[in-house]
Design a protein that fits this description.
Helices cover 23% and strands 42% of the residues. It is of the alpha+beta class. The protein has a single domain, classed as Clam (outer membrane lipoprotein receptor (LolB), chain A), CATH 2.50.20. Strand 8 and strand 9 form a beta hairpin.
């Protein structure tokens, strides 16, 4: 009975994590609100501070389309893990991820440990869903754009050496593939530095709480995922953390400088609390 509960809890948590990590601004080949793709040669010029959350996001989308159009490929070593709040690892998988524009992702397992049930129902499910989403097979529009959200400027904040606009994202519909939360946007480059929030709709009777934090880092001229943490509380199963650490190896064929980063834990106070 406990195994069945564990499997059900892990599967639901996987659906949550896919929804969160699938959220993005438009990438190369996509446009916002039917606009034409921006020219490859157009420079990314910092704009003047905007007066509203929606204007900030209009600037964000434009700059992101330029960066995405220039991104031909990148590779990363990812570490996926499911742990409890005390740090005990229930399952872990290390993979080599390759992205080739505009829509191809591949994953090769390098090492794995822990529960095979969790690895198959959660970690491998995440990778399969990401491959489908990249290829356009997922029909859920979870992009962080004005089509799905209203944006309200809250304040400005310094985060990881970036001066950021802090914007509240308010979903326009009650959809489990959207979220409610805050987004930190670099004020000079109009790139997302951090997202923190929870699903806009309760995923299931089994999941009583779900909070996530996603962080990005600048690699050369591009902003790529650095880490994901999702704190999930499942009935009869308890509190677990699903996490991904992204270690970028190369971008457009150029090897990236190894990055030593601390594991941020302010998410515990900004999302799931006490």
């Amino acid at each position: 009975m406990q195994i069945l509960r564990t499997m059900k809890g892990c599967f639901l948590a996987a659906l949550l994590f896919v929804a969160i990590t699938g959220a993005s601004v438009p990438t190369a080949g996509q446009t916002s609100q039917g606009s034409e793709p921006l020219a490859l040669s157009a420079p990314v010029v910092p704009l003047q501070p905007s007066a509203s959350g929606d204007r900030i996001f209009a600037d964000l989308v434009k700059h992101n389309e330029l960066r995405s159009a220039r991104l031909r490929e990148y590779s990363a070593v990812r570490t996926y893990a499911v742990t409890d709040l005390n740090g005990k690892v229930h399952a872990k998988e290390i993979v080599q991820m390759e992205y080739i524009a505009p829509d191809k992702k591949t994953f090769v397992t390098v090492a794995e440990e822990g529960s095979g049930v969790i690895r198959n129902l959660v970690l491998k499910r995440l990778m399969e869903s990401e491959i489908s989403a990249a290829a356009g097979k997922e029909r859920h529009d979870s992009s962080i754009t004005p089509a799905n959200y209203t944006f309200r400027l809250l304040n400005e904040d310094d985060l990881d050496n970036h001066h950021c606009f802090v914007v509240e994202a308010i979903p326009k519909r009650n959809d489990k593939y959207l979220f409610e939360g805050k987004i930190w946007i670099d004020s000079s480059e109009f790139a997302i530095v951090k997202i923190a929030g929870h699903p806009a709709k309760n995923l299931s009777f089994w999941i009583t709480r779900a909070d996530f934090v996603r962080r990005y880092e600048k690699i050369r001229d591009f902003w790529l995922p650095a880490s994901d943490e999702t704190f999930v509380e499942v009935r009869l199963y308890g509190k677990k953390i699903l996490g991904i650490e992204h270690h970028i190896k190369s971008v457009n064929g150029v090897t990236s400088t190894p990055l030593v980063r601390q594991n941020p834990r302010e998410a515990e106070s900004t999302t799931h609390g006490s």
